[in-house]
Write a structure and sequence with these properties.
This protein is mainly α. It is built from 7 helices and no strands. The longest helix is centred in the N-terminal third of the chain and has 38 residues, at 3-40. The protein is elongated.
Length: 236
């Protein structure tokens, strides 16, 4: 390839990365805003989250078009091919996380008639899920496999918080039948947050693949961490 062609190819890869990160930023903001609308009982903010989901969907379509063109016209190999495959997988997780943020905003609108009375566990779960999503985007931006592995390990904490939320809400509903509707809403919101954490883990797993060429999606996490460490020692 000519120097001009190589430069253009590199620019296209960088543009793809920036578009994915822009999409990720929108998703992260959507999750934060949906939770803020819940905390502040701000229906107007919740409706904006719902409306802005279209922008996230548009970026998914844009990324799909960019990756198709790169695969068809550039025929990438090795690391570049892994990067493109990673972006294809990541945007799916981001789009679904955006849908979950929208679902939280929709649930918030229902809490206007059925206010949540016990929210501390929900806030803790939200903080952890949002942090995982933010870190997942950071490890993709910087190609950080070590951070990616840390995110995969930390998912246990999100699952533990969600199970605790389940138990608490069940207790409240059993003690007072008037809490049933609000308790079910809290469960639904918590489940959406737990799933956002799962999508962050999916992104982290793809970053490990992108950087190391190792597929750790269905392997034991401790074994996966050992594989990455052994790979580092081999390269050293």
């Amino acid at each position: 390839m000519s120097e001009h062609t190589i430069k253009r190819y590199e620019d296209e890869l960088n543009e793809l990365k920036e578009t994915v990160l822009s999409m990720g930023s929108l998703v992260e903001k959507a999750v934060r805003r949906s939770m803020k609308s819940l905390i502040e009982q701000d229906a107007k903010r919740a409706r904006k989250v719902i409306e802005r989901d279209r922008a996230i969907n548009s970026l998914e379509i844009e990324v799909d078009e960019m990756t198709r063109n790169l695969l068809a016209l550039r025929q990438p190999a090795a690391g570049d091919l892994r990067f493109i495959i990673t972006t294809i997988k990541i945007v799916t997780d981001l789009e679904r996380s955006g849908d979950l943020a929208e679902a939280i905003a929709e649930a918030m609108l229902q809490t206007e008639d059925h206010p949540l009375t016990h929210t501390d566990s929900l806030h803790n779960l939200a903080d952890k899920a949002i942090l995982q999503l933010q870190q997942a985007l950071d490890c993709f931006a910087h190609g950080d496999a070590d951070l990616a592995m840390a995110i995969i390990e930390s998912d246990k904490k999100v699952n533990t918080l969600f199970k605790s939320l389940q138990r608490e809400n069940l207790t409240y509903m059993m003690e007072d039948h008037r809490q049933i509707t609000s308790g079910l809403l809290a469960y639904s919101i918590g489940k959406n947050l737990e799933r956002i954490g799962d999508h962050a883990v999916n992104i982290a797993e793809m970053v490990v693949y992108m950087v190391r060429g190792q597929d750790v999606r269905h392997s034991n996490y401790k074994k996966a961490a050992t594989l990455v460490a052994e790979d580092e020692q081999t390269k050293a």
